[in-house]
Amino acid sequence: MAIVTMKRNGLGPLRAFLVLVGVSALCSVALGTRKGNASLDQRGHRHRHPGHLSLHRHRQRAGKEGQVLHRSKRGWVWNQFFVIEEYTGPDPVLVGRLHSDVDSGIGNIKYILSGEGAGTIFVIDDKTGNIHATKTLDREEQAQYTLTAQAVDRDTNKPLEPPSEFIVKVQDINDNPPEFLHGPYYARVPEMSNVAVQAGTSVMQVTATDADDPTYGNSARLVYSILQGQPYFSVEPQTGIIRTALPNMDREARQEYDVVIQAKDMGGHMGGLSGTTEVKITLTDVNDNPPKFPQSVYSMSVPEDKVPGEEVGRLKAKDPDLGDNGMVNYRLLDGDGLAMFELRTDSETREAVIKLKKPVDFETKRSYTLKVEGSNPHVDPQYLAWGPYKDEATIKVHKYMIPLYTDIEQFFSINADDGKITTTRPLDREAQPWHNISVSATEIGGHHQDTKVRVNIKVKDVNDNAPEFATNNEVLMCETVAPGKVIETVSAVDKDEMAHRQHFTFSLAPEVTHNHNFSLKDNRDSTASIYVLRKGFSRLTQDVYYLPIEINDNGFPAMSSTNTLTIRVCSCDSRDTILSCNVEPYVLPAGLSTGALIAILACIVILLAIVVLFVALRRQKKEPLIVFEEEDIRENIITYDDEGGGEEDTEAFDIATLQNPDGANGFLPRKDIKPELQYPMRPGAGRPAANSVDVDDFIKTRIAEADSDPTAPPYDSIQIYGYEGRGSLAGSLSSLESVTTESDLDYDYLQSWGPRFKKLADLYGTKDCFINDGDDGEDS
């Protein structure tokens, strides 16, 4: 029968037992899935232990009637192995053992393992058949491995049994937290949603996923809970459905809610992993607010010279709902002015516009009354009990009137019967202390007389403004300030009028009352002095201090405010003159003022300008003085390391020796070196006369002298040619004497000078040919 071999590998006794029991339960289901009786061994016993594969040889057995029964070769008895994922023990994990019934234990059988992970993840002891996992496995990467086992003869490697496949399954542990793949979520739910049905109105469902095995234990069993958003919303623990939990949530009071949902595995028990997501829920509008006129009575006026169709006045009912839910329709209900006025609705502003329907005559009737209704055309039956969704207002059209141009913002109204002037809204003395309006009165009767009077209205003051600092609230203080010194005297102003003997009082805010840097003394004359309490201030440590000061105006009712005084630490000289209030100058060398730094920078700029000018002048002097218009033919400055070569070699000698043949009879000192020792002319070095100089002999003589002259430098010197010879048929070659027009001189005689001047002859001959060709082209 099969024997299970399993190693604890660091697992506790209880856990090892659970692993065995759990694997046994799983394997008991798997047994019998291959070839019917594959789960039974030769004796008909069911395999109860997983982690073991047994090989059986082909056998014969006699039946009950004595007949010989031939059994087919069964090969491997199919089974499954299990290994726990994420195992981090020091030793390889024993997965199971392979055993063949032909293995007599003498070591002649060799077990071979092949397939997924064989040799890398799973290794087998070829003698015992023990299979070990050498690496940490992750079920989420690969849940199972298919392997092939075979028993072969150790000496001949011949198979003793046919190969058979088996599966190693990776057993899951809870190592993956739940994840919300589609978060964050956005949802909308109507305001005033009902919570009585099904524990609240459904908002949306959030779903988390867990990569752990859902078929094993509670690793992937999720429970949802709400971390933020109570008491307004709740979530179903098993489904993740978010529902409203608070009735009568009003969009006009609060429109958006941020809800945080948590999903926890292991059925929500301790030790489970969790993940969270955010849900932004927006309340949508419903028609739950009726329209409301801000005033119950509106006063309007109209002169009798207005024509029908002209506007008399406007009014509007307010509805905080949105869109169609906040739409208001207007109509005239009652009043003695129904025949004289009509109502229209402005489609853009949704205001009720009162217009003149017929001409009015104030001698006949001096005032009219209208009743206006504003109502919602779209009413939700669900909220009918919250109605009625309409409101009424009264309009009085007077005789007395205030011309609009004198009261543009319509702060005042006048009673048509008694002429009493009243305010329509609160006035602000600090914004406008005086209001100058006109009142027009029309006489009733046949005389048709009217008059106007100017009314000046002064707004009385009430103490409704808090005091504040009178000037800039920033103070500059030296680092070397002495303790007890007054660094600032603060004062205050108030937009309200100050009563007799009323003054401001000052005090430090409670949070800085016990600070160790500054103190405050109230001078009882609406000013206060700021004192320094210590020494040793440093900009490097702290360059700005903020001192909150409370100011009270002692009015009725008393008004106070907290103003912050900014104290900036600055560097000063010995006379306490402020030099700088920035931290940056501290990185510069000590003892240098701003003026010194500017002077240094100016000197550096001037020096740079001088250097640039000097370099430019040097470059300008190096430019050649002789430039031909058509060709750039000039004397070449050639640097060479050796001398010699043929007559075609222009780099083998110093052409400067040809400067002045007249100096052949005398010694011409070099200009590029300072002569320390002059050697006398070598005796016997005769030179031909200047008038009979042969150029070839002259050059050879100069070369010989240069070779034997110990004072000659090993480099060429730069010479400026002011003399080019005399008695030449070609004349001067200097560009300074060249004409600017084309020269018609004939240089054919240069061809007769011999090969030494062939290059010069070819140069001028080529020029002449080019000119002739150009002339021929023009003639043609």
From TrEMBL:
Residues 100-180, 181-293, 294-469, 469-587 form the Cadherin domain. One of its GO terms (molecular function) is beta-catenin binding. Keywords: Calcium, Cell adhesion, Cell junction, Cell membrane, Glycoprotein, Membrane, Metal-binding, Repeat, Transmembrane, Transmembrane helix. Residues 44-61 have a biased composition (Basic residues). It is found in: Cell junction, Adherens junction; Cell membrane. Residues 39-66 are annotated as: Disordered. Coiled coil: none annotated. The chain crosses the membrane at residues 596-617. GO terms for biological process: adherens junction organization; calcium-dependent cell-cell adhesion via plasma membrane cell adhesion molecules; cell migration; cell morphogenesis; cell-cell adhesion mediated by cadherin; cell-cell junction assembly; homophilic cell adhesion via plasma membrane adhesion molecules; morphogenesis of an epithelium. GO terms for cellular component: adherens junction; catenin complex. SMART domains: CA (SM00112). InterPro entries: Cadherin, Cadherin-like_dom, Cadherin-like_sf, Cadherin_CS, Cadherin_Y-type_LIR, Catenin-bd_sf. It comes from the Eukaryota. It is a single-pass type I membrane protein. Cadherins are calcium-dependent cell adhesion proteins. This is Cadherin domain-containing protein.
